[in-house]
Amino acid sequence: MQKPFKVAVLGAGDMGKNHIRGWTLAGHEVVSVTDLNPQAAREAAVMMNLDHVTIYQDYREAIADPRVDIVSVALPLVEHAPATILAAEHGKHVFCEKPLASSIEEGIRMREAVEKAGVRFAIGFQRNLAHGVELVKTWAREGKFGRPMVISSDLLQEVRPKRIMHDKFGNQGPVVDTLCHFLLMWQTILEAKPVRIYARGGVYAKGRPEIAHFRELAVDTAVVTVEYDTGDIGTMTISWCLAKDTKMRPRPDRIFGPKGGAEGKFNTFGADAGTEIVLLEGDGEERVPLEQRDLFRIEMELFARAILENKPVPYGFETGLEMLRLSHAVLESIETGKVVELT
Ligand SMILES: NC(=O)c1ccc[n+]([C@@H]2O[C@H](COP(=O)([O-])OP(=O)(O)OC[C@H]3O[C@@H](n4cnc5c(N)ncnc54)[C@H](O)[C@@H]3O)[C@@H](O)[C@H]2O)c1
Q1: 125 Cα nearest atom in ligand 1
Q2: What is the atom index within ligand 1 of the atom nearest the CA of 12?
């Protein structure tokens, strides 16, 4: 590597800690950690033995710090656009968590600021870098399942402990916050373009005291069907409505077609891959072990290499905007009860 970059990590929550770890393992130097809660920022840094980093409470100071090459945004959704735009205006490259922004218009403003400044930008869809996604994509391409294929995923969780996740004007619920990982995974594996979406759902966790203070709750439950230009179908039940301590057993991702199928956890959060994917062809069954990849280290390495070698980033504005548009189409279908044709 020609140059270790100096990185400012904004946000010291769950993802901020993963960013600090990813950048450090990728061989770059985290020079500051910012959080409204300075104690949380310090603890996050110390966890990676970074005792001497600068702790900021105000991300404007972190961005203005002349040492910084890359700003790594792990803040709540409402801050993605302001932090990215400010960083670009200061000539800093930006790595930003998904989803891209609170609205398409905001996402476009982020892209304009980055292009105007001539800096690089990448968005954190690390789950799509999992070994399982690559493996199942290869099998699909080899025709192991035949065509058309159906790919299905499932995520059922309690009302989120981070309440802002349920705020329609905050993180905007699971359709915006989390479904994007699966929408991206399906089209990666199928190598297909989505053409229409149908979804039903709504706010199922109504009247829960822990989220009653929000002006408006985001849709927390959706049953989603996506049709692709190849005739393949993606489908998911996603919900954050369950009562406390209701632990529904996780169901594996599945893909099948007229010739065969596979099941297992195809994409994973970080270094927590499931151990195997089962490939089923006729009456044959093969258990294929999964590599345990540190997806945060990999995504930071890829972004740094893209900057140094002037290469494309794994996921940038095109993917971020496309996933946001698909999530909005899901919400539109739920609201109108109609199929949404994607143009
Ligand atoms: N890629 C993934 O798999 C994945 C997974 C979870 C979350 N995320 C995304 O990462 C982002 C952060 O989520 P999280 O789970 O880490 O949230 P979190 O609540 O755990 O952490 C956010 C941190 O930001 C701090 N903060 C909030 N506003 C701030 C401000 N204005 N200035 C400085 N600090 C501020 C909070 O104090 C908190 O510590 C979200 O956009 C979320 O959608 C991505």
Answers
A1: 1
A2: 39
Residue 142, both tokens:
């080899």
The pLDDT of residue 343 is 84
With a cut of 70, which residues of the chain have pLDDT below it?
Answer: 1-2, 270-273
Tell me the CA distances in angstroms from 251 to 49, 222, 245, 328, one per residue in order. Answer: 37, 16, 18, 25
Q: Whose CA is nearest to atom 19 of ligand 1?
A: 13
Mutate to test the pocket of ligand 1, among 18, 35, 240, 272 (most ligand atoms within 8 A of CB): 35
| CATH for 127-295+325-341, options being 3.40.50.20, 3.10.310.30, 1.10.10.350, 3.30.360.10 | 3.30.360.10
- C-beta separation of 255 from 132 below 8 A: no
Tell me how far apart the alpha carbons of residues 180 and 121 are, in angstroms, rounded to a whole number. Answer: 18
The pTM is what?
Answer: 0.96
Q: Average pLDDT over the chain, rounded to whole?
A: 95
> Which residues line the pocket of ligand 1, CB cutoff 6 A?
11-16, 34-37, 40, 59, 74-77, 79, 97-98, 124, 126-127, 162, 171, 177, 269
98-131 residue pLDDT tens? 999 999 999 999 999 999 999 999 999 999 999 9
- Alpha-carbon span 109 to 111, nearest angstrom: 5
Q: Which CATH class is domain 6-119?
A: alpha beta
